[in-house]
Amino acid sequence: MNNQIPKIIHLRCYGYPTRRGTWIASCIDLSLIAERSSAQESIDALHEQILLYVESVFDTKDKNSIPYLLSRPVPWYQKLHYYLIGTICRFAKIRRGFKFKREYLLPQAA
To answer: What is the 3-state secondary structure (H, E, C) of the chain?
Structure first.
């Protein structure tokens, strides 16, 4: 793995409704997940988790670990779910989920 700390990180995220009537939003690049009562609330909660996680990564004393901590992928079956949701969103007339990419400007380690 490259030990360079990127200036910008691109994160792949997706969401879907549950049988309980809530919504799940998940980031497959950092293995983070949020569940809320609406799609937008789950996206907002996930965004907040991402910001807090990145902040804690840059607070570490071991600066060499930062690139590794910024790449915390989910298991293969969750990546598969991400791509399935994306396919459903693209081709289905009924909206059964969402998929988005978000760009985050990272602080630089001192």
So the answer is: CCCCCCCEEEEEEEEEECCCCCEEEEECCCCEEEEECCHHHHHHHHHHHHHHHHHHHHCCCCHHHHHHHCCCCCCHHHHHHHHHHHHHHHHCCCCCCEEEEEEEECCCCC
In our burial notation (b when 16+ CB lie closer than 10 A, e otherwise), range 1-20 reads: eeeebeeebebbbbbbbeee
Chain centroid to Cα 105, Å, comes to 14
Q: Which residues pair with 14 in a beta bridge?
A: 26, 99
pLDDT digits (tens, 9 = 90+) for 23-64: 999 999 999 999 999 989 999 999 999 999 998 998 889 888
Tell me how far apart the alpha carbons of residues 98 and 85 are, in angstroms, rounded to a whole number. Answer: 7
- Mean pLDDT across 7-29: 90
pLDDT number for residue 83: 83
Does the global pTM surpass 0.85? no
> What token pair was written down for 82?
């991400």
